[in-house]
Amino acid sequence: MIVTYRDALNQALREEMERDDRVFLMGEEVAVYQGAYKVSKGLLSEFGEMRVVDTPITELGFAGVGVGAAMVGLRPVIEFMSWNFALLALDQVVNSAAKMLYMSGGQYPIPMVFRGPSGAALQLAAQHSQAWESWLAHIPGLKVVTPGTPADAKGLLKSAIRDDNPVVVLEGEMLYNTKGDVPEGDHLVPLGAAELKREGDHCSIITNGKMILVALQVADQLASEGIRVDVLDLRTVRPLDVPAITASVRKTNRAVVLEEGWEMAGIGAQIVDTIQRECFDDLDAPVLRVHQADTPMPYAKNLERAAKPDAAKTIAAVKKVMYVAN
Amino acid sequence: MSTPVISQFPYRGDPVAPVRLLEVDGTLTGGGGSVPPMDDEQMLSALWLMMLSRAFDDKGTSLQRQGRFGTFSAVRGQEASVVGSALALDPARDWIVPQYRELPALVNHGLPLESFILYFSGHPAGGYIPEGVRLLPIQISIAAQLPHAVGLAWGLRLQGLDAVVLVYFGDGASSEGDFHEACNLAGVVKAPVIFFLQNNGWAISTPRSRQTAARTFAERAPGYGFDGVVVDGNDLLAVYAATRAAVERARAGGGPTLIESQTYRLGAHNTADDPTRYVAEEVLDSWRDRDPILRVQRYLAACGRWNESIAAKAQEEISQTIDAAFAAARAVAPPTAEDLFLHTYAELTERQARQLREYEMPATGPANG
Ligand SMILES: Cc1ncc(C[n+]2csc(CCOP(=O)(O)OP(=O)(O)O)c2C)c(N)n1
């Protein structure tokens, strides 16, 4: 069935709320307004205001309320209007949700989901355009998923809700309207499993989240020039699917890592570390990274365009590792 | 035997009535004998700013629709609240810390209109406040400006200055932890700060009733050890008088005040919002009757200081002012590739210099080209 990314998330929420009455949704504008991006459309009328809860503008508060509710056996889904605003709630995400099980000697699992859009949209400027995967993936105790397609959005969110750990779901503002085929029925995508979204044997493009769309565009363009690439969608950035990465690089012997965020201590650095350790003898070229420019996101359209990782930068990197002229 | 109820601060009673000095029909509250806190000349300049703000709202909204402005929040409906409070300050020593919906206050305090235009055109130069203008930049991260304002007020006091700081924020912002922490700290250190809460009924689509169970926002002030005031935010005179009193108190070392200005957002939250889905037309109409601009015009008309020809002349001047500001903004050179990295740090880093070379920046056009 062809659905939007937004509707895929909506289906996941609805199905999981029907399946398990411990699941509830809380956040800014999730109920009456049906979510800033309409992800919770129809849920208030279906499940009522005890399970679809509008909050004041109080990110730290409702993230913490979620942790508390999880400690009495509920399975909260906390929506952040944007992960950029979730910064106010990080103490609850990092110091409470991620550590409660550990610090209680295994007594308090925190089976909850923190979700919302992360990364840049268009002209939302420095404070509102940040990709958070490397920050959150840094934390032991959290799982972090970054669906790039409607099918993955649905399957990963459902798995996240069923998981007994706190799971961070990083969505994309620019993805909500994108469409794709979503399998019928109880579609689950396991956490921690990458997917080869395109097969080729010349070079691996390893990526995640909304960058998957860029990578597929790159793959098409390169195919027309006779260059065949693997596009490996990590889907989950913690835990990382190391076997999938190594299998692809062992086949192609070359890799470009494409990520939305910054270079310094980015997710790409972690991938490159894995590759150099696991595939040192398989490499025919240094692994290159494509990422955001090392600056807060500018507001000006032209500068924003220049700052973001894109198809042209990725193609240049692929050709560089293949030692062909751009 | 029943347990006695032990509660020394029971929550009961009706909300206080907001301070009002100017009635909806433009007459003075309490009749002709009352003395308004502003004279006619002051009211005329206040009105001019309010009308400038309204005209700029329309312009900004239409430019956003054309893709030439970023997301933009109009002041519409809140002009008396913003202008009345700003006029109670002394731009030569006092500071304003804005949220993002206070254009006429910023202009009155010395921000050139073209800076504001550059900001919303995405030009990096738009974020720079000219030397000597006592304003902090607009804040998008809700409530983050509140602790800054307390820090500013405290810092100014430490420097021996008699300046006060007025910080704007919304009913929504008051739900963030920053609000509580800022108020609490300000009370403890007696910072010369005025917390000016614009209760415009909404935080995007979240109604005021969802932000607090309290009757008013202002009644929280005593809990922090200072005074609170509720004013009719669509009454220029009441807002001005209440803010003046708070400024005087702060200047004299009496510490903070929380002013709740009860007003109403007469339109969308911003250009990305569609309020017809959650605001009832009748409610909107009832507030349109209480339009803060009409109220001042009615008063001035009764004093013989306002009529159609004066209004037409004012509108003409306002369009010229706005056009001139746009012309000045257009004259600023568009950002270049270097601007991408400039000011991330005090100096360009090696990593940035490398990226600048590697990136083969696309040729840059105008900021929104
Ligand atoms: C920390 C944070 N959370 C959420 C948002 C999203 N957001 C932008 S404006 C807004 C409503 C603010 O309402 P209020 O403070 O009442 O001001 P108003 O816009 O009504 O003037 C929200 C929730 C944000 N910008 N920052």
Quick synopsis:
The complex is a heterodimer of chains A (326) and B (369). Chain A has 326 residues and is of the alpha/beta class. Helix content of chain A is 36%, strand content 19%.
Question: Any overview of this molecule?
Answer:
The complex is a heterodimer of chains A (326) and B (369). By secondary structure, chain A is an alpha/beta fold. Chain A folds into 2 domains: 2-181, Rossmann fold (3-Layer(aba) Sandwich), CATH 3.40.50.970; 195-321, Rossmann fold (3-Layer(aba) Sandwich). Chain A is 36% helix and 19% strand. Chain A contains 12 helices and 14 strands. Chain A has helices at residues 5-19, 43-47, 59-71, 90-97, 100-103, 133-137, 150-162, 211-223, 242-252, 267-278, 301-307, 311-321; strands at 2-4, 23-27, 52-54, 75-79, 113-117, 143-145, 167-171, 179-181, 195-198, 203-207, 229-233, 236-238, 255-262, 288-292. In chain A, strands 3-2-4-5-7-6-12 form a 7-stranded mixed β-sheet, with helices on both faces. Chain A has a 5-stranded mixed β-sheet with strand order 9-11-10-13-14, sandwiched between helices. The longest helix of chain A has 15 residues, at 5-19. Chain A is globular. The model of chain A has no long low-confidence stretch (mean pLDDT 97). Chain B has a 5-stranded parallel β-sheet, with helices on both faces. In chain B, strands 4-5 form a two-stranded antiparallel ribbon. The longest helix of chain B is centred in the first third of the chain and has 26 residues, at 40-65. Chain B has 369 residues and is of the alpha/beta class. Chain B folds into 2 domains: 40-332, Thiamin diphosphate (ThDP)-binding fold, Pyr/PP domains (Rossmann fold); 334-369, no CATH class. At the A-B interface, α3 and α11 of A face α11 and α12 of B. Thiamine diphosphate sits between chains B (101, 140-142, 169-173, 200, 202-204, 265, 269) and A (28, 57, 81, 85, 88).
